[in-house]
Every structure is written in C-alpha cells, then in structure tokens.
Design brief:
The protein is an alpha+beta fold and 115 residues long. The chain has one domain (4-105). Helices cover 20% and strands 43% of the residues. It contains two helices and five strands; from the N terminus they run ββαβββα. The chain has a three-stranded antiparallel β-sheet with strand order 3-4-5. β3 (29-44) and β4 (51-65) form a beta hairpin. It is elongated. The two termini are 21 Å apart. The relative contact order is 0.18.
Length: 115
C-alpha cells in the first residue's frame, strides 16, 4: 500500500498512473479501495419514532489486472446499521469498516475476481 507515488498523494492518481507504478513494482493487479463514507448517523423524524441512529458505510473496490489494464471487479457497497433510538459513536466505525471489507472480499486471502 502506497500513500504517495512520485511525491503525489495516491488518491490523486489516475488508473493509468496507478497501473504504471504497480507494473514498476512487478505487481500483477491493482486493488483500489475507496472509503466514500464512514460515520455515525442520526436521523430526526416528525413521527412517534422521534429519532433513529446508527452508522453508515459506503465503500468502492476495484481490481485492475496488469499488464492488460482490464477492470476485473468494480463493487460498490452501502451498509447502514441503524434503528429507532439507537445511538452509536465513532468507536464502532472500525468494526463497520472491517464488516464492509469482509462483505466485499470474504474470508479468502485472494480478493474477489482473482484466481
């Protein structure tokens, strides 16, 4: 996992730039995991159930095969763990993130779409 490539944040790189760097490191695929949303959730209702809380997780995982550049997998995940009068703080977010990754990749050490 790389935070910067060529002095630039990895999040700013295009798919082609990521693939080029991965090829330079003799990788056979690029796995991109983007956390689009991860946080506590509070909804106020104008009804007998006055509020609902919980957490929300949105992830996107992509697997790009190298050297072909073929997009092998593109999965978007949206999880909400909510309920009436449930209040969850930021302490549960690591479990929510791990649950989302588990849902995408499962127990296998080889990610979805790999042989």
């Amino acid at each position: 996992m790389l935070d910067t490539i060529g002095g630039r944040p990895a999040l700013e790189l295009s798919d082609i730039e990521m693939a080029d760097e991965a090829l330079n490191q003799s990788a056979n695929r690029v796995i991109q995991i983007r956390v689009e949303e991860l946080g506590p959730l509070l909804i106020i209702h104008p009804s007998p159930i006055l509020w609902e809380g919980g957490s929300e997780t949105r992830l996107r995982a992509r697997i790009i095969e190298l050297p072909s550049g073929k997009l092998r997998t593109d999965i978007a995940l949206h999880r909400r763990d909510t309920g009436a009068f449930v209040l969850r703080g930021a302490g549960a977010l690591d479990r929510d993130l791990m649950a989302g990754l588990q849902e995408i990749f499962g127990d296998s050490p080889n990610p979805i779409g790999s042989e």
